[in-house]
Amino acid sequence: MTTSTTSEASASAPLFDLQSLVVAVRRRRRFWCAAALLGLIVGAAVSVLVLPPPTATTKVLVAHQEDQPNDPGTLIRTDVGLLQTTRIADKALRSLKSREKPEDFMRDYGGTGLTNNLLQIEVTGDSDAQAVARAKALADAFVADHVRRIKAATDAEAKTLLDQRDVMRDELAQVNKAIGDGSTESGPKASADMESLFARRAELTSRITDFSQRAAEARVGTPQLIAGTQIVDAPRAVHHSLPRAAATNSVIGLVLGLVLGLAVAALGTVVADRPVLRRDISANLGASVVAELRRASLRPARLWRSRRTQAARTRLTTTLSRTVRNSVEPVSLLELGCARATSVIALDLARELAADGPVVIVDGLPGPQLAGRRPKPGDPSVVSGERAADVSPQERRLGVGSVAPGSAWTDLQYLGTRTVLVVRAGHGSAAWLHTVARQLADQRIEVLGVVLIDPDPRDRTDGTLWDGLHTALRGRPERPARPNTTGRRQQERQPERERQTERQPMWAAQGPDSDQEAR
């Protein structure tokens, strides 16, 4: 029955939980806000440190012989390509009397086709004056080259037409000679030949006239094209506004940094697979979330937050003290990613339990959160894990330990056979939470519940398991309490072998095995 329930739960689990991703990314807002701020700073720094070179611009109106209203911009793109040639660059450098190589000069300028007939040229230089001079020389060289190409094309077309006209004239001369020679002949055949010669002469005369007219028309449009190609916007230096450039680059850097930060945060969340919602943490640990506390509640509270902070800590202490009082066996607090918070909770809980009798905290934390602190008047006694055996049976023990990677699992049962896990949301991966649940089950330590530290304030998911003991508890169920204290003490003094015999069987952890389990 348990296997079937687990299979159904796995089948109903979504492959990609968008809500968990959004919550995890929102919890990492410090990271992507820092990335956006870094992009903003880098953009502003680039504007200040990497200043653009002095630039000049000019605009040239280019008239084409093949201009068409539906031209998609092929002609102006051809002009842009011709501008980036060593021939035009060499002419401009000669007018400037510069010894710079045309290949190097071509890297300092560029052209842009604004319309089908308007070309914009941008040139950089060592100073504004040099940039303006370069722009003027480059524009003049381009106009001269364009005019030369127009004249060459017109002359070539006119020459072709005139050559055809000369050929026709030679043929006409031969026809006229044939007519003169055949005028002395008579007869029907001679008459038919003369008629064909006259028809040919008329055709040749018409074609000669047509070629002459076309050659003249070819040269007529050239002056208009030459006059139409001119500099319409004189070369001028482009003024660079540092505040505007800084603002633009800052906005661009801010957007790029924000997008990159969100992408990295989302990718890291998917790869790390660290549960942040109550339902996910509860499902992976196999125990219900009994209380939660924001991390800010453990810090010195401000005036307007003191009441709310104190109320949250008091509510948590009351919940845990009720759990400890109702437990026959020793209870421990095991932390995962929140050692300092666990030590604060343990001190509050020990002070609350001190009203029922002496309380001793067994410190099993790896750091000096409890053992290295300065005791205050009225604080409970704190002993290290090595001195746990010296605690008197009349004193209530409250163990504090850790289930972080590297913990000694076999020592946890000496802190308490029943435990409350104090877990920071988003700290441990799903695989490690499964490892913790399985190790505690192997050590026969019952998990009473989970205290969630730093939960998402917008989390509305349910962290309570409703499937009964098979999934709600990783350890054994609670044994009925003894009617008196004497029986309780006798039970605590039983040999370890006899206590293990009395324990009921445990259910296996309902989750996939992990390669990250402690060895």
From TrEMBL:
Comp. bias intervals (Basic and acidic residues): 489-502
UniProt keyword Cell wall biogenesis/degradation present: no
Membrane topology type: Multi-pass membrane protein
Assigned GO CC terms: plasma membrane
Residues that span the membrane, as ranges: 31-51, 251-272
Positions of region (Disordered): 368-392, 454-519
Family annotation (InterPro entries): Bact_polysacc_biosynth/exp, LPS_length_determ_N
Localisation: Cell membrane
Keyword presence, Cell division: no
Protein keywords: Cell membrane, Membrane, Transmembrane, Transmembrane helix
Polysaccharide chain length determinant N-terminal domain residues: 16-95
Similarity comment text for this entry: Belongs to the CpsC/CapA family.
Protein name (record): Membrane-bound polysaccharide biosynthesis protein
Organism: Streptomyces aurantiacus
